[in-house]
Amino acid sequence: MSTASLSTLALGDHYARAFPDLAIAWEAAEAPEPRLLVLNDRLAAELGLAPEWLRGQEGLRLLVGTGVPPEAKPVAQAYAGHQFGSYSPRLGDGRALLLGELTPADGRPRDLHLKGSGRTPFSRGGDGFAAVGPMLREHVVSEAMHALGIPTTRSLAVVATGRTVYREQALPGAVLARVASSHLRVGTFQYARATEDTDLLRRLADHAIALHHPHAAEAENPHLALFESVLDAQASLVAGWMLVGFIHGVMNTDNVTISGETIDYGPCAFLDAFDPSTVYSSIDHAGRYAYGNQPAIAEWNLARLAEALLPLIDDDQDKAIELAVDRLGAFRSRYNTAWLAGSRAKLGLPEGLDDTVTTALVNDLLVLLRDNRVDYTSFHRRLGEAARGDLERAREAVLDLAAVDEWLSRWTALAPDADAMDRVNPVYIPRNHLVEEALAAATEGDTAPFERLVAAVRDPYTERDGLDRYAEPAPGDFGAGYQTFCGT
Ligand code: AMP
Ligand code: MG
After folding, report:
1. What span, in angstroms and rounded, lies between the C-alpha atoms of 290 and 280?
2. Ligand 1, residues 24, 86, 95: which to mutate, most atoms within 8 A of Cβ?
3. Which of 180, 197, 219 is a domain's end point?
4. What is the distance between the alpha carbons of residues 450 and 110, in angstroms, rounded to a whole number?
5. How many angstroms is it from 187 CA to the middle of ligand 1?
6. How far is CA 429 from the centre of its chain?
7. Averaged over 186-194, what is the pLDDT?
8. What's the rounded mean pLDDT across residues 172-183?
């Protein structure tokens, strides 16, 4: 049975009740003229919410936060964070609200959270609002990530509010309704640690263990085990990003989850031509969050989590540091293992293949792609054709024919499995030029290109007729100077 009214919607206030020091009760701003831009019907069904109800007046009010069940207790969550390496002690939900927790039939609780719902006590200089474009970007990119099998928060809906928001220009405003297994961030732990209330920190850590890493509870040192579990989850997450060419763009510690889900899609983008130094974000002047830096940054962010957890790891702080440093040392090998397994799959190679052979093959390929500015995603599909015996389309993507021929002969000698490759190498990703085109049209009121793009990326591995333009690299005149802007 799907919920189809506010009075029967069970929206928990567990976090608000359990962590009053980390949450401020707050209400969403009025939306003058709410209009649904996109609804994730499948996700709604998974959550036990009737899509037709969400489309109606009452549902729309829930999706912008102005109509919540009587017992619900929306809050703005507190967190700190290192932004581009500098510590901010008080960030928090400056334009977001946790409406509460849903408990769908699958038994896994989910946060129902809004972004763009107005000012809160954490807004600092911001207006608390969001524009249609960036909220739709989060919708399509997070749907693509989910379809690619990468853990992520999900977008339930984007609703235009009828309010104009002012950025460099006047833009239509929107609220994104987002679902996540939680909104616990590294920054939440940094905030709790900074209060110097060790009991609060311990309760937060125990909450995270219960919610996301239950096996840590059985460990000899559960809080150290929590750290290791988050480290594993992040190592595997970032490996997943690297394997699909995803650039998060703003890997500040407040944008890193304890669950291991991708969160806070701001100036994110997918690589076109392969180049580890690629940065699309207009605010990332030093290239801190460049594609190729992401694993090292994840490790840096985990060091910040370890610092926050130190009081729980051991009463003797020197001992705690020693233990944390030791566990952090495992990040590189965890990341490499995940990345190598994914790379092997992308190249259709057998699991038993020697790691040094795989590593050399992948690294040589990546150098080839970088030096020849080859489109990362489509090249891997062309390799699938090459594995079936037709080498031409792979060859013609690379200027240096001698080098590609040499590489292809080494690789085909290992008898790659083309079908297995097609199951892991996407045809359709939210390419930057397509995202921009869709967001521009939607901002002007036409959501049809956006809907087509979402439909393409939701089934990324199955090549379909009529979708050629979604599979092709950006036209030559697009790309070099491409920039994404934060959703602020
Ligand atoms: P981000 O890195 O974009 O996820 O956000 C960093 C911080 O800035 C968070 O504390 C946000 O709540 C806050 N923030 C971003 N945009 C706005 C806005 N328009 N108004 C108020 N706060 C904002
Ligand atoms: Mg954020």
Report:
1. 8
2. 95
3. 180
4. 26
5. 13
6. 14
7. 98
8. 98
| 381 within domain boundaries | no
This prediction's pTM = 0.97
Cβ distance 338 to 347 under 8 Å? no
Q: Tell whether 169 and 205 lie within a shared domain.
A: no
- State whether the Cα torsion 442-448-453-455 is positive or negative: positive
Same domain, 190 and 139: no
**Ligand 1 atom nearest to CA at 96:** 12
Residue 111 among the catalytic residues:
no
| Ligand 1 interacting residues, C-beta cut-off 6 A | 91-96, 122-123, 126-129, 250, 252, 255, 264, 266, 486, 488
- How much of the chain, in percent, has pLDDT values that exceed 70? 99
Determine which residue's CA is closest to atom 22 belonging to ligand 1.
94
Q: Which of 165, 285, 267 is nearest to 487 (CA)?
A: 267
The domain tally of the chain equals: 2
Q: Is the pLDDT of residue 476 over 90?
A: no
The reply to whether 154 and 214 lie within a common domain is: no
| Same domain, yes or no: 199 and 116 | no
Model confidence over 292-332: pLDDT tens digits?
Answer: 999 999 999 999 999 999 999 999 999 999 999 999 999 99
Domain encompassing residue 124: 6-79+88-180
pLDDT surpassing 90 at residue 481: no
Tell whether 61 is covered by a domain: yes
